[in-house]
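Subject: sequence -> C-alpha cells, single chain

Hey, anyone have a minute? Need the predicted structure for the following. Not urgent.
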Amino acid sequence: MFWKNKRVLVTGGHGFVGGHLVKRLEELGARVIAPTKDDYDLVDGEQVRKMYDDNPCDIVIHLAAVVGGIGANREHPGKFFYENLMMGTQLLHEAYRSGVPKFVAIGTICAYPKMTPIPFKEKDLWNGYPEETNAPYGLAKKMMLVQSQGYRQEYGYNSIFLLPVNQYGPGDNFDPQSSHVIPALIRKCLEAKESGAAYIEAWGDGSPTREFLYVKDTVEAILLAAEKYDGSDPVNLGSSNEISIKDLTELIARLTGFSGEIRWDKSKPNGQPRRKLDTSRAKKEFGFEAKTTFKDGLHKTIAWYKENK
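Reply:
Had a minute. Here:
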C-alpha cells in the first residue's frame, strides 16, 4: 500500500527504464507525473523550478540522462558531462527548495574507478579516476552523490543515490549510434542472419567483463529503495553475474541463430577491464536480489526486438 495515491515525479519516464518504472508505479496505484523534454528542459534551472511548481509531488525518481555506448561517450564527452551534471544538480536542489520529501538519484556504474577491485564495493568509489571513455558521464552522475550527502548533512534533506549496472530488456535502445552492448549485438546478429552475412564485427578484443541487470529487476530495486532506504551511503544495484564480452557475443549469436564468424576490431577501445558488483548492501538495506536469469532475460529481449523492430 506504500505507493497507493503517492504523487511520484519520474524524470526520463518515457525512456527505456523509465517506461517500465512508470507502468509498474501505475499498477501499484501511484499518481505518476512523467514530463517529457517538450514539457520542461531539465538542463535549464528556471524550467526545473517551474516543473516542481506545476507538479507538487511526494517523491522524485531521477532517471533522465544523456547516455550511450563507448562510441557515443567518446564523441560527446562535453555534452554528456554538462547536461547530466546540470540536470542532476538542479533537480536535486530544486526538490529540496520546493519541499519534496524524498529524492531518488540514479547514478551509474561508470562512476567507479577504472581499476576497481572485483567485486566493486561502494567504499571504492573514490579510489581512482573512472575509465577514460566514459569518465565525463560517470563523474557528472557521481556529483549527485556528493550533493546528496552534503544536503543531508547541512539541511537534513532525504535523498538517496543508487548505482545500477547496465540494464537490458524489452524496450531497450537498439539504435546503432547510441545503443549499449546487448541491444547492439542482438541487432547485429539478427541483421547478419537475415542478410546472409558471413561475419559480424565486435569492438575490442572480447576480454573485458560486464554485469547486466534485467530491466524489471532494476525497477523492483528502485521501488524497494525508494520505499525502504533513507541513508546517505550509495547502493549498488546488480545481478552479481559477470560475463566476458567474448562469451556474451557468442551467447547472443547462438540465441539469435547467427552462425557466422565474429571478427574483433582491436583498434576499438575495450572500455573498463572488468565489472562486477558487490550487491550485499542492497540486500541488507532494502531486501533486493535480482530474480531474472541472464539467459531468460536475453530470450525475452531478443523476442521483443523481433516483434518490434
